[in-house]
Amino acid sequence: MSSTEGTPKPEPTDIENFDPGPDPPELSDMVGVSQDITAAADAATALGGDYAPAVAIALAGMAVAGGSKAWSFYRDRAEQKHEQEMQKLKMEAQSQGLEGQQPPPCKVATAKMQAEVDALKLKIGSIEKKTSMISADFDGEDVERQIKRMKKRIDELFEINEQK
Fold first, then answer.
1. pLDDT of res. 149
2. How many domains does the chain have?
3. pTM of the model
4. Whole-angstrom distance, CA of residue 121 vs CA of residue 161
5. Within this chain, do residues 73 and 123 fall inside the same structural domain, yes or no?
6. Residue 57 falls within a domain, yes or no?
7. I need a labelling partner for 117 at 20 to 30 A (CA). Which of 67, 111, 134, 149 fits?
8. Nearest to 60 by CA among 85, 83, 43, 78
9. List of residues 6+ apart from 27 with CB closer than 8 A
10. Which residues contact 60 (CB under 8 A, 6 or more apart)?
11. How far is CA 6 from the centre of its chain?
């Protein structure tokens, strides 16, 4: 005796007169599908034709990848990644024992710039020594005028000397 003999067979259901009861919830309400995706599916359905399912999938993909929730996800992810990098740099600095000090490459650059500043200070000091001999009320244009007068006087003297 088999086990199927004792089991009653279900009666076939009349599909034409079947009453499902109150309106069942939409699948998009149950799953929580974004409005962008449902709008894309509706647009593909309205388009119709043989390619409607492919268009619906493509539009839904675009809605998911470029929707408002996707952009907020991408923004949040970028902020989190930045914060992780900052924390990583802090931990590296603490593990090196720097505790607010400059890292070695920065120390080398600072020492190089300090040497250049010291060399410039020496050059400025030597220039100040040379210019200190010139008085504060020195007028270079006045000296040029005097030199021109002297040249004229010398030329006049040569002319007088040649005439004799």
1. 94
2. 2
3. 0.28
4. 54
5. no
6. yes
7. 134
8. 43
9. 33
10. 37, 40, 41
11. 74
- Round to whole Å and give the CA distance between 151 and 145: 10
Q: Within the chain, how many helices (H) and strands (E) appear?
A: 6, 0
Q: Look at the block and give the residue holding tokens 């993909």.
A: 61
In Å, how far are 79, 119, 132, 133 from 126, measured between CA atoms? 54, 11, 10, 12
Q: Which residue has the tokens 């699948």?
A: 27
Task: Check whether residue 37 and residue 65 sit in a common domain.
Answer: yes
Tokens representing 3 are: 């086990």
Instruction: Indicate if 123 and 86 belong to the same structural domain.
Output: no
Residue type, 119: A
Which residue bears the tokens 């309400």?
A: 29
Task: Evaluate if residue 157 carries a pLDDT over 80.
Answer: yes
Helical axes 35-47 vs 52-66, angle rounded to 10°:
160
40, with CB counted inside 10 A (0-12, 13-18, 19+), is: buried
